[in-house]
Amino acid sequence: MGSGGSLLSFIVRRLIITIPLLLLISFGVFSLVLILPGNPALLLAGGIHSTPAEVAKITVQLHLNEPFWRQYLRWLNGIIHGNLGRSLFNGNPTVASGIAERFPVTLFLAIGGMILSILIGIPAGIIAGVRAGSASDRLVTVGSSLGVAIPDFWLALLLVIVFAVDTHVLPALGYVEWGTSPWGWFQHLLLPWLALGLGGSATIARQVRGALIDTLDQDYMRTAVAKGLSPRRVIGKHALKNALSPAVTVIGIQFGYLLGGTIIIEQIFSLPGIGEYILTAISVKDLPVIQGVVLVTATAFVLINLFVDVIYGYLNPKVRLG
Amino acid sequence: MAGSAAALFFVPMAASALSAGSAAGATPSNENTNGVLKYGFDINDEFSNFDPATETNDCGYTVMSLLYQSMTAPGQYAISGGVAKSWTISPNAETVTFTLRPGIEFSNGQPVTAADVSASLLNTKKSPLRSSLSAIQTITSPNPETVVVQLSRPTAGDFLWALSYIDGSIYPASTIPTAATNPIGAGPYVLKSYQPGSSIDLVKNPHYWDSAAYPLKAIDFVQVGIGPQAVSAITSGAVDMISLDPEQYTEVEHDSNIGTAITQSYDYITLETRNNTAPFNNVKVRSALEYSVNRAQINKVVFAGVGRPAYQPFPSNSPGYNKTVGNKYVYDPTKAKAMLAVAGYKHGVPFKLEVPSGDTTLQRLATVMQSEMAAAGFNASIQLIPPSDLLTDVYLHGQGNALLSANLTNGPDISNTFESEYEPTGFPAKYLGTLDLAITPDIEAANASDAASLQGPLMQKVGAIVMAQGLETPIEFEPSIIAYNKSVVGGNVVAPIGQCRSDLAGIYVKK
Amino acid sequence: MSLIRPPWNDDPLDELAAPAAAVGDVSEEGGAARPRSGFWHRFLHQPFALGGLAFLLLVIVAAIFAPLIAPYPPNLQNLNLVNAGPSAAHWLGTDDLGRDILSRLIWGGQISMRAAFEIVGLATVVALPVGLVAGFFRGAVDTVIMRLMDAMFSFPPLVLALTVAALLGASVNDTAIAISIVFVPSFVRVLRGQVIAVREENYIEAARSLGATSNRLIRRHIVPNVASPLIIQTSLALGFALLVEAGLSFLGIGEQPPTPSWGSMLNEGYSFIFSSSWALIFPGLAIMLSVLSFNLVADGLRDSLGRERPRKSKLAGVTKEKKSRLAQLRGISPRAAEPAPVAAVEGTTLLAVKNLRVEFLTNGKWLPVMEGANFSVERGKTLGLVGESGSGKTVSALAIMGLLPARGCRTGGSALFEGRDLMRIAPAAFRHLRGNEISMIFQEPMTSLNPAYTVGNQIAEQVRTHRHLSKADSWKVAVEMLERVDIPHAATRARDYPHAFSGGMRQRVMIAMALSCSPKLLIADEPTTALDVTTQAQIVALLHSLQREENMAMIFVTHDLGVIADVADDVAVMYAGQIVERGAGAALFTRPRHPYSEALLNSIPQLTPPGEPLHYIPGMVPRPDQFPRGCRFHPRCSYATEACITTPVELRPPAHIEGNGALSATSPSGEGDDGAGADHRATVTLSRCVRQDELTLAGARAMADVPTPAAPGSTQGTPLLVVRGLSKQFPLRSGLLQRVSGSVNAVDGVDLSIDAGTTLGLVGESGSGKSTLARLVVRLIEPTAGTVVLDGTDITALRGPKLRRERQGMQMVFQDPYSSLDPRQNILEIVGEPLRIHTDLNRAQRQQRVIELLDQVGIGSHVLGRQPHEFSGGQRQRLAIARAMALQPSLLVCDEPVSALDVSTQSQVINLLSDLQDRLGLAYLFIAHDLSVVRHLSDRIAVMYLGQIVEEGDANDVYTRPTHPYTAALLSAIPVPDPSRQRARQRIVLRGEVEMSQSAAGGCRFRPRCPFAMDICRTVDPPPYTTPSGTIVRCHLHTTGPELAGASVSGLELAAPTE
């Protein structure tokens, strides 16, 4: 099929599309400045104790007197050089370092939640889809309907009450570095992963179930049976690869929800991730931090989806052409 | 009610009430000499960096006070020595002459010199956050043990109290550029490691001048958010000690494994009214408001019964407490209603009550108050406002008729809050119209001295005016609550005077 | 056609359901529009969705009437009873300020529900126009919008909502705005996708060709058709909005205290979770149950609205039923209904099917779709199974293969394959046979290969399963098999995925796979139905040669008697679940013994002389629950007598044989042919007709021998449509950046003219550009070059209102009757649409006219209020014709109007068109890939190949004396329903298939496939040449020299099927 169909050129094409997308995102992020009420210079100048001269000085320091597009280009230029600017507060540490310190926690949290939801959701979806109409299917269907409907933070609170406080089985909160104690790290993240992942697993299970039922109804499944393959092979090889490709897209989107959902979950479990960072920044209108965090999470989301697209392309040769 | 960011902009020089240097030197037999105290703390929200000049968060002092020794140290009614062993005030209250503590060293072993003191204070002064030092005109050092500070205003007393707080932290001149990440101070502990938003680990400073007062070998500050997380942290054993909000106190008070210590603070929650526009430009309305709040019930419901109702700006143990005013403004909705009718508000006074968001205690307080005040004819509609918007929205843009806020006093420095509230230079005074020139002379006189005996009567006078004029409606003196794990923490646990401080002298970890 | 559900239920192709019955579970009578009744009926039968709806209504009603219902005011504090558990006074307990939780929940519902509806409403208001514009206009607008949406979509939803909410402020309205921003991109995406899907439907093209404006298209067709998915999406979004709102409220962004919302209640309860969890649990439950309810309602809506959505129909118009194929996957054959004796099978018989019975469970009743079928297949021979759709032929094939679902289906009888009864064999043993000794190929090559694996992998897998070869060896076998089925460059093509193959090539792959283990029996289920005639000829020839090589037996299922004549040794004709005639193939065609067989032969178009109406079998195959008593065919039989109506008939040999006693006596149980030896099967024809001995039925030869009357002289009328140099290029994208790298000349310099009242037939394989040409003519797409003159007016340059006015004279009928009628409109609206657009008739006048039109196409006026899904394919095509006729056009462009119809229905529609032409003097541009259909209707025929007309002339001339090798090949590919002639005739089997040449590379386009290709064909594009008989041809055989031309022309004539 020539170059158009190879996985590599598909990946390259996806990468090329990603660049303008990221630019667009960066513009959107920077535009947050437009809806921000209040004047950061005034806050920095000491609030109620500020003098007009101080305010003016800080305004110039922050380039707030420049036209919007120049501020944007300056910021963009910084980003390209790995510089996300400096926090307005806290002794002005760089946003990049602030994110670098916290993002791994959020990423562990989101990826762990994702893995958990995949580990639960895909098998559950497969069981339900293969045995559509059976008791186990009904169990999965009802369970996943509930799972989708449960607010994740509420689930988190219930988990805390049950596991952490009433039974002391798992730590209720806090974070331990992997380097300090891998087991501690795992223990501390398990409840947050559950809180985040159960809802996701419900969504994935529903998707897999639906896709599998659709796939099982395809003509090529009949072909596979007619070939004399064993049921295991019919499902495991012929149905799954096709049924999983729509699920993969859902997983990508799900990751976005997880990245967002971590904000509340980090609050509840006192995890030092990016969610806490942005909540604090929002409460004091620390714009560079808000912009930095939003940009980084959006970029992470885009990259994850790029990765997901590649998997999708692997599973579904047809999309490589498009 | 741990240090909401609201406090940041109003009282940047709030002070600590460390009862320093009072601990016994003897080592108790069950002390674990290698023990580490896990202290629950909202690092993420209440700490930003180690530079005393740029640390934005009042609550950062919880950690900073253990790393840095300030020039002076606060006590119940008076300040005591810190880096400065003693001082004298010139008669015009514009010059303070400090004598440095002999032999005092930084944690890196370097001696604390007059040059370091001068450099520290001048550096800190540059920060817009530390305007308490703005009065410094010059700093001279006639000899290595002496530092002379010349002030531009006769506010020596006020200045000395400010130096007991973070503003007075002393650090080596050479480490100023790196202070934010690599703090070197003369405090009882030194920084071992820091994970932003996650943990701050301290170990004992071998060079500390009063080492015996601090038996703890190490302190790990562990990230715990404000709120119910604090309860799960302490009950699950994730931390050994933590400061609690009143709501959380009720969750642990009956837990036999958890000990609690409560100290009545001078910080109080107050209702600031906008006195320059209707309805609160009418003194009769303001007076009626004083009678419309059931402080006793609030103490019981909102503060778990461990706070103290604030019927005037000073608690009864303060030299500023006015016995004549006493508990005069006890809840009396009928009287308030009648007063409103006289003032021309037969059908009640609707008003917008601004409440800083993200603070459960204030939110619950507002809700209870709303219902109490409704009975007295005040119909408040609550509006939550992010702390960062208070300055612009409430002050500059005049949003709302009243603001519920926490007045962090500088500990026992009793004249402190009145400066911004009622003095011509004060920001609220200017924008809320709470300026009252009648009290200016008394505050100025009080600022000159650091003697409680002098300040007390002056503030009693001011307090009476504040209440009579209804300049504000004090509601509750906040309790400072510490919860600790009885099986881990030894020694006499004392909650610090006021929020956002730590008092770990004499505390040890049991074997 | 997949057979999970009984085929009569959902199969749009067969005309077997009478219109009234096709209405299905919807009420029978009354002409009023009932667009929703089906929906409600379905929705009300879904307990979960109903439960969800009930809960939501409860919450919403309670919230609205909160002041009346809530036991306490929401903010009433009882500070003496804080954090109390449920009690008589406070059913759900009290919160931290002693407020009644139940009351706050009821009031909180007001805020939370309002917020959810605000959020979704706002998002819809923004997304609706954006999505419509992007999907409808596509192009640059679409690109810009979608890139923006991609960017918005890239923000994790909660992060975006939180940031915007925090920056906007804390009021509930601002929060709603912030959250709605999160919903916009996904709404736009869904909507756009739906709009694009709907836009592809023919009814949009149809409306446009009627002269509808974009505005009207969007308003009347697009919006109603995307409404269902939008409603479903909305319901899901409401649940999600509730969750997001709760999340933000929990973080303290949203409604101001003390006003409760469910999220803020959670926030308040959070502080006291350890001492009292009631205040946390109940609001959480309220949120969860509401979200669950929204989702359940959405699921219910999806199930109830889904079926009204336009059917995605393939070429053949076959829809897929949804149900698990679990049984097949487990390899379990449906359980036998009754035991049957197992008898030994004689030497040459490979498969002996005895008393085969298949029943489907329908509405709680077991209905037989096939009963008492007896037939056998000899080694190396082919048995043809023939019949209309719904006759039971595919069901029988699947039953033998064990591919019927276990649920809702049961079988009886036996199928002895080399002594093993396939009806009772253990699953594992059957697996060993399947794909190994018995293989099957299916009707739909496009969907029967797994898209996720390379074709080599799929073939090798089968080899490895049964032959236990190594990976490398099985791959080698796969490549060999691909070579054997004549796939060029087999070694490299083996690494391609199915989507890289054309339909014909895929069917070759299927055959390669099926034969990879040298099976003894191949079951071919309509293997060529979905293919072009030329490809069909290739596939049939291929199967034939492979069968000979392998000495393989074959069951060939088809509805096409022509193909059967080509391949079958024996034939079984099926009707309504029975075999009605069985015997040697040759005998069936020369002397059919059952009226149904005769009727089937009769309805083959090429057996009817041009100008005569085509024969057809009236009525349709009955549904199994409506099988008539007596002879099942009697209602449609022209020979039926009293006896046929009352007495069931059994399958038996002719009386003279029976009477001779040469065979065992017929038992009344219908086992008449039971002990019949194999040799008898080849010679004796059995028939299920009481009158078989008295009737003399006409065979194919007899029909074809009817002399061809002189062709209707091409009336030298005025040219109505004149097309000159019409071209259409489509850009071709390739490479990393999908840049335009070239172009395809889909239509390349076509000249045509059609006289008033005459028909020009246009034929060619798929991919030849016929449909593009049709769309160019009616101006649905813009030509790259050339002119279209209609009735003296050059319409090529017309735009806007002028073009819409001119469209009145020219209407189009589309191939797919399922997608050319708007499923959301009723018949009055559909047929009356052109009148609404172009006339100012009032409603009553319009209705009057619609009734006239329906009458013209033979549909009663009582259907005015019905919707398209209540009609069969043939009826829909009539409706489409009625709509096209509404404005009394002078030209009708018919794009394969009968290709998707059963042969009998096909005849009816062609007769209708022919009749309309006679009565109204219409001119037709009639497009088809089937030359025999075209010939029947056309005055002139044009043959198209790769965008060019390669031959155009008088219909009779082209059909009987083709001058272009391509025409000759097309003609010779048509199977002749007469085995002796079919086998005798010399055929040109075209190699390869239509290949999209990227541009005119020079030389003759047909050269690569032309058996007569010469050197000159390589370099010079043949110019048009007019033969003495007036045929215009583009072929060097006619231009390079008289001798050569003469020789080859005569050679071509040899290939013509009829003289």
Give the terminus-to-terminus CA distance of chain A.
Answer: 13 Å
Share in helix of chain A: over 70%
**How many DSSP helices of chain A?**
13
The secondary-structure class of chain B comes to: alpha+beta
- Cα(first) to Cα(last) distance of chain B is 33 Å
Task: Provide a descriptive summary of the structure in words.
- The complex is a heterotrimer of chains A (322), B (511) and C (1059).
- Chain A is mainly α.
- In chain A, 76% of the residues lie in helices and 0% in strands.
- Chain A is globular.
- The model of chain A has no long low-confidence stretch (mean pLDDT 84).
- In chain B, 28% of the residues lie in helices and 23% in strands.
- In chain B, strands 1, 8, 9, 10, 11, 12, 13, 14, 15, 16 and 17 form an 11-stranded mixed β-sheet that branches. Chain B has a 4-stranded antiparallel β-sheet with strand order 4-5-7-6, with helices on one face.
- In chain B, α6 (228-235) packs parallel to α7 (246-252).
- Chain B is globular, with a radius of gyration of 23 Å.
- The longest helix of chain C has 37 residues, at 101-137.
- With 1059 residues, chain C is of the alpha/beta class.
- The model of chain C is unreliable at 1-36, 307-345, 660-682 and 1041-1059 (pLDDT under 50).
- Classes of the chains: A mainly alpha (322), B alpha+beta (511), C alpha/beta (1059).
- Chains in contact: A-B, A-C, B-C.
Write the layout of secondary structure elements.
The complex is a heterotrimer of chains A (322), B (511) and C (1059).
Chain A lengths: L6 H24 L1 H4 L4 H5 L7 H10 L6 H13 L14 H36 L4 H15 L2 H15 L15 H35 L2 H8 L4 H39 L4 H11 L2 H29 L7
Chain B lengths: L4 H6 L25 E6 L1 H4 L14 H7 L4 E3 L4 E3 L2 E6 L5 E6 L13 H13 L9 E5 L5 E6 L4 H7 L26 E7 L3 E6 L13 E6 L4 H8 L5 E4 L1 H7 L5 E16 L9 H8 L4 H7 L6 E2 L23 H11 L5 E8 L3 H16 L2 E8 L1 H10 L5 E6 L8 H7 L4 H6 L7 H9 L3 H18 L2 E14 L3 E2 L17 E2 L2
Parallel strand pairs in B: 1-10, 1-11, 14-15, 14-16
Antiparallel strand pairs in B: 2-3, 4-5, 5-7, 6-7, 8-9, 9-10, 11-17, 12-16, 12-17, 13-17, 18-19
Helix pairs in contact in B: 6-7, 8-10, 15-16
Chain C lengths: L6 H4 L8 H4 L14 H7 L3 H18 L1 H4 L31 H37 L1 H15 L3 H12 L3 H29 L1 H8 L4 H37 L11 H9 L7 H29 L19 H5 L18 E14 L2 E14 L3 E5 L6 H9 L7 E9 L2 E2 L5 H7 L4 E4 L13 H13 L3 H14 L5 H4 L9 H12 L6 E5 L7 H18 L2 E6 L2 H7 L2 E6 L2 E7 H6 L4 H8 L39 H5 L8 H6 L17 H6 L2 E2 L12 H5 L14 E16 L4 E17 L3 E5 L6 H8 L7 E6 L2 E2 L5 H7 L3 E4 L13 H12 L4 H14 L16 H13 L5 E5 L7 H18 L2 E6 L2 H7 L2 E6 L2 E7 H6 L4 H9 L5 H6 L30 H5 L5 E2 L5 E2 L8 H14 L4
